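Morning. Coffee machine broken again, so started the prediction first thing and wrote up yesterday's gels while waiting. Chain of 261 residues, entered below exactly as on the submission form.
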Amino acid sequence: MFGTSDSPSADLEQHAISAPLDRHARLSTENAPKPGAQCSTCMLRHICMASNLDETDIVRLNSVVKNWKMVRQGQALYRAGDPFQSIYALRSGSIKTVLSHPSGRECVSGFFLPGETLGLDGISTEVHTCDAIALEDSAVCVIPFHLLEALCREVKSLQQQVHKMMSAEIVRETGQMMLLGNLTAEQRVAAFLLNISRRLQRRGYSPTCFTLRMTREDIGSYLGMTLETASRTLSRFQQEGLIRVQGKQIELLDLEALDLR
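Came back before lunch.
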């Protein structure tokens, strides 16, 4: 993830030390879904889809979330236009979503951390509307949506959790519109850093020291500004003693001052 990485499972460790294959076969093996995903033993269950389920219902959810897959840095989990079949719970690593304009211009629309869900964009039209690209080697749980829908009809607490996920996505997109439409460049960058800080803290990581896996260009695209503006704003914050920047390493020195920008 952003500066830290959870081990997806013992199965992932075994995969990492398996005998080397030729490049084509290795990529095919890595991209194929793998068995072994278990919500009941996942360290992220308190912030993921299983957060409000009792042990009995978690076992039933395990029957739906059967597989996980690796997405190597720079590779796509899915692309715009791909048929919608599953949603994905991020177990480790980090992923960005990218929208493409007919003119060819691309815009980063989101950054996702472990415990968060990708693929909801495909529900309404049954095709994905954006690309999901791994910012680092990442692992996702594959959740076939038709199986999830069927289980939601039987498990009301799970249905409520799925509704919350969809609502959270609407709130995120609304917040992004406000960020782009009403805030100055400095306020956008400050809000972005504080948002990452809060999300990392919820996952048990430091809210003040972390690694930004995305590029400055990605940050600028997400915040509706140029690469140069994003870089200058970070440099200004460092000069004012609000943050310390060393490459992709970020330390937030004054959270209160950032919140007041």
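The radius of gyration is 19 Å. Going to sketch it on the whiteboard this afternoon.
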